[in-house]
Design brief:
Layout: H1 31-34, H2 47-69, H3 76-83, H4 87-93, H5 97-120, H6 126-143, H7 145-153, H8 160-178, H9 193-210, H10 217-228, H11 258-263, H12 276-298, H13 305-312, H14 316-322, H15 326-350, H16 355-372, H17 374-381, H18 389-403, H19 407-412, H20 423-440, H21 451-463, H22 465-473
Helix pairs in contact: 2-3, 2-5, 2-7, 5-6, 5-7, 5-8, 6-7, 6-10, 7-9, 9-20, 12-13, 12-15, 12-17, 15-16, 15-17, 15-18, 16-21, 17-20, 18-20, 20-21, 21-22
Length: 482
């Protein structure tokens, strides 16, 4: 079984290499050569060919500059200069920076899908086809980390259109994979396994891309396939999950918890006998809750300090005494939400008699917490991806902490089942993806119904599908009395 090779070297990558965006699959060239324009003047070239070449150079420039300094810092003047086009030419091809980003994203997504599906579409048994497809994905990510990063990580600050495009790409990929599963299985909306598998593979890939460890991915392809194929193509009976249907226009969700609503309001004004520590704690909690509520209701772009202060019933000076900026308030709210989610899940986990039931209890407790705190759930699981690299680091640290609770399972099955070391990381990423799906669609009320299937997803690599389904079907109410 393949294992990590421990190397921390980043392979040479280029938006123009191995055919990305229609470019030349030769070794990486210098920046000047990679963006060399077609001949100028009277050349007799087809105008459409010239435009395609200009678009390709601009898309490659966008990918390179996002990887270098992040989407918000990329300017049109930088793009035009790197791609060797004039700014008037840029605006003749794209409406704005976001238009170019979406064009580059679509090109990368389409090309990646074609590469993986071409590898999958061979005359071999299903599991062998998955091996070939997984290797193709891993090799592509290792060869072109900047390009793959755009696909799996997106671009911080690129806006709602970019997030919508990412969701659409994932939905199309899930439909394609689900179509290859057992036709007798339950409806795709009730079977979350494909979504979780994609989330797990994405998490393993994204972690190595972020940490300049993309060269490890080809060595993990067989392990990821071993993990993915341990789940039967038919979901066991009794584990169907409620659909997470996007709300119709005009429908509203409850975005604050009962706890947050009870905490609203100002402490007594003027001199107070309350301890200073208590007052500051109350102010901080109200700022955190207000930040989460605003982002969930209006989006990250609408978050402002005056709005936070108004909702939290604190002065602007009090806000600045606690948080230097709205960015810090967002990170503070994220840390509070994720810490509480982890604490609730771990407490439930530690109260059980054995590891399988501990995982079941932890999953149920985590889901119940998210359902009770809709604003914090939205900020922590959905808005993180549009925030900043620091927010992603907070998220990653939490996922790694969740994954450590699978360590006892490896000892539990030692000598009986060969579970890849990467499975725990992939399971944590898969569960996150499903939670993200329900929260993003404002379907927290339906999320508790997905707990049995997520428990099954977490346990199957270690217990096998039959025993995992048996544990997953056990009513949550029986756990506390076990």
């Amino acid at each position: 079984m393949a294992t990590r090779n421990g190397r921390n070297t980043r392979p040479q990558a280029d938006g123009a290499s191995t055919g990305v965006l229609g470019a030349d699959p030769r070794p990486r060239k210098g920046r000047g050569e990679r963006y060399r324009p077609l001949p100028t003047g009277t050349h007799g070239l087809d105008p459409e060919l010239v435009k395609r070449d200009q678009r390709s150079r601009l898309q490659k420039a966008m990918i390179e500059l996002i990887a270098e300094k992040g989407y918000p810092a990329v300017r049109i003047v930088d793009l035009a200069k790197l791609a060797h086009v004039s700014q008037p030419t840029f605006y003749s091809l794209y409406a704005d920076k976001e238009d170019l980003f979406l064009s580059a994203y679509d090109e990368v997504a389409g090309r990646t899908a074609r590469t993986v599906m071409h590898a999958y579409d061979v005359d071999l048994p299903h599991e062998q086809r998955l091996v070939v497809a997984m290797r193709a994905w891993a090799e592509l990510a290792a060869a072109e980390p900047e390009t793959t990063s755009l696909l799996v990580l997106g671009a911080f600050g690129a806006g709602s259109s970019a997030l919508e495009r990412r969701r659409r790409v994932l939905d199309e990929l899930e439909r394609g994979i689900y179509a290859s599963r057992d036709r007798a299985s339950v409806a795709a909306s009730a079977d979350l396994i494909v979504k979780a598998l994609i989330g797990g593979i994405r998490e393993v890939t994204a972690t190595r891309l972020r940490e300049d460890r993309a060269s490890e991915l080809p060595g993990l392809a067989d392990d990821l396939t071993t993990w993915a194929t341990c789940y039967p193509r038919r979901l066991p009976d009794g584990l169907q999950a409620p659909a997470a249907k996007r709300r119709e226009a005009g429908e509203t969700a409850i975005l604050s918890s009962e706890r947050a609503r009870r905490a609203e309001g100002r402490l007594p004004s003027g001199r107070s006998d309350l301890p200073r520590q208590f007052i500051v704690k109350s102010q901080r909690e109200r700022i955190v809750d207000a930040t989460a509520a605003i982002v969930a209701e209006k989006g990250l772009a609408a978050l402002t300090i005056p709005e936070i202060a108004r909702r939290a019933n604190v002065s602007h000076q009090t806000f600045y005494d606690i948080y230097p900026s709205k960015h810090d308030a967002f990170l503070g709210a994220q840390k509070v939400g994720l810490h509480q989610a982890l604490t609730v899940a771990v407490d439930a986990y530690q109260a059980q008699r054995d590891w399988p039931h501990a995982i079941q209890a932890g999953v149920h407790a985590l889901i119940d917490y998210l359902a009770s705190e809709p604003a914090h759930a939205h900020l922590s699981l959905v808005d993180t991806f549009a925030a900043c690299p620091q927010a992603i680091e907070v998220r990653n640290a939490t996922l790694k902490a969740f994954a450590t609770y699978f360590d006892p399972a490896y000892e539990l099955v030692s000598g009986r089942v060969d579970v890849p070391a990467v499975a725990a990381e992939a399971i944590a990423g898969g569960i996150w993806q499903v939670l993200h799906h329900y929260v993003e669609n404002d379907c927290l009320a339906e999320l508790p119904g997905a707990a049995p299937q997520l428990t099954y997803f977490a346990l199957t690599p270690f217990l096998g599908p039959v025993e995992a389904a048996k544990v997953a079907r056990q009513p949550a109410a029986e756990l506390n009395s076990a």
